[in-house]
Amino acid sequence: MTTKQVRIAELAKENPKMAFTSLAHLLSVEELRVCHRELQGNKAAGIDQMTKASYQEHLDEHLADLDKRLKQKSYRPLPVRRTYIDKPGTKKKRPLGIPAYEDKIVQRGLAKILNAIYEQDFLNCSFGFRPNRNCHDALKVLNVFIEKKYTNYIVDVDIRGFFDHVDHQWMMRFLKLRIKDPSFLRLIARFLKAGYMEKETWHASEQGTPQGGLISPILANVYLHYVIDLWFTKAVKKQCQGQAYLVRYADDFVCCFQYKQEAQRFYCDLKRRLEKFNLALAEEKARIIPFGRFAQENAKRNGNRKPKTFDFLGFTHYCGQSKSGHFRVKRKSSRKKVGAKLKAYSQWLKGHRTQEIDFIMDRLKRSLTGYYNYYCITDNSLSVSAFRLQVIRLLYKWLNRRSQKRSFTWEKFNQFLKRFPLPQPRIKVNIYQLRSELSYIL
Description:
By secondary structure, the protein is of the alpha+beta class. Helix content is 48%, strand content 13%. Strands 2-1-4-5 form a four-stranded mixed beta sheet, with no helix packed on it. A hairpin with a 5-residue loop joins strand 10 and strand 11. Helix 1 packs parallel to helix 5 (101-118), helix 2 (29-38) packs across helix 5 and helix 8 crosses helix 10. The protein is globular, with a radius of gyration of 24 Å. The mean pLDDT is 92.
């Protein structure tokens, strides 16, 4: 952060009720230039087809003009270019909004200022899109809540189309609790109302924040901070006689309860809470399940072999035992995520099977390394090894379809893999090693 952003963070931390009245001036030419440098140059272009490289050609002129429009309050964001990406595990598509390049610069500057303020307000239960926090931290903290605390029930919920249904009026009301600068708020409102272009047709955006926008993650965290986090901490937990915990990563969250009746009450209250802010539960996915150290014993007593499982952040969580026979939460890669990833591998190999072998194998190595970095956590080595084997089979299938003649037998293919070996999975994240910065949460 710049010196001014650090000072904003200090003031926000010192006075949680302070409202900032002068922020828009921080989007200076110098700050806009820094934001430009920080943006990646290989991202898709918006409706103006402007890239980082083309913007760079006349950078000083572009930034001077942008700064002038911001000061004159005549700057207006362009509509985002809407595209669609596959939704893992389903045939549905997820809408993605790609902003114009200049809008990315301004959004990055706005996001930095918002982060400086709200990082002081956000609660420990929130992990998504925050500095020095990641998915593995959320999984580690959840693991402690289930294994070491009195967790007997999990409320597994999903907000239906959260990013598409964020209420703009409520969003602005939340922001005004901390920000009183009308110029700054006007910029955010214009981004929310910019709309999107699809098949050369402009569509209004009366609600929601476009996924893909640089400002959307922090705005989503602000919205859910007031809708979920504060409510759970200051209202729900205080009404519970037993223990209750929340772990949230963006709009994906899990709640742990000691007593069933309190989990059920929370579930009913949550539906009403979300409705108040124009959100809704995906009730076909929502459920309350027994989970924890006593769930296995109760399942056997009720004639069930195993307790139910739940998915969170790409992992299926299930009740297991340590080597010494004590209760443990274990995780394996979610079947839905694995299936979607293998489908993506198959489609890529099919489309690139005629490329040079060096290119194909280098891309596979880098992709598998990224997969391992996320999924190679405690207890999940077998699942990742099985995934690697499936990738090898897909590689064998599509390399044999480079021409009408089969390129490989399995014997020749194994020799080929010795020349172009794919990385072996190994555990990279110990779920029981909690970073010191997060230990105070517990």
